[in-house]
Fold this protein.
Amino acid sequence: MHECSTICMDFRVDYPAEASDVPAEKSDVALVVTGGSPHTEILASGNELVRSAWDVTSGKSPPTGRVLLFDERAITPVLPAAELVVTAGMDLEIMTSDRAFAPEVMAMNLMPYMRSPQKRNVIVTMTFRLLKFERAEGRLRALIDNDYGAVSKGRYVDHEVISHETLPNDELCFAFKPDSHNLSAVDHDRLVASQPQNLTALLRELTAVPARRRRRGAQYARGDL
């Protein structure tokens, strides 16, 4: 950030830009890099009762009591959330519909994350899927099922955390697209060379690739290759 400040780059944090804010800057080029937000609305009911792994790791919504952490991503975000829950003294069960826990995380990266949970007798349940969440008997009841057979169970917990897919924050991109010169398609060679985007040439190249693939597929089918 210091190097960027030497070229008069301006940073504005915690500033959710609206569609009217960017044109007001009168910039020559606008790059929309808005990332995404956690998607937790995956249950048949009770979506309003859950929080995301991002909420836990950011400190925005720390859970208490007995916690069920349902992981559908099998990658890193669930691991720091699990570590924060157990180091805070909470009882934790990690559940995944997969047949292995965090298979996308390499062994050397998984080892340090698992040290804290292992010391605190965290329960890891595999091959079960969270179906819905409801209030019952003054607590929260999770209904779970198994993809490998008709096995339904219930869990009584105090909080439910879900690690699922990320939805793109694409509102600004689609808001600017109709008025952009390149209709949101990027010619990276011209961008690096600080040249204006040439939509006609770019679209010609994009449509040429599938055409070449079709011709090559036809050649394979005829036995010419």
Q: What stands out?
A: The longest strand covers residues 128-136. Strands lie at 36-38, 50-52, 66-71, 91-96, 123-126, 128-136, 139-146, 149-157, 159-163, 166-168.
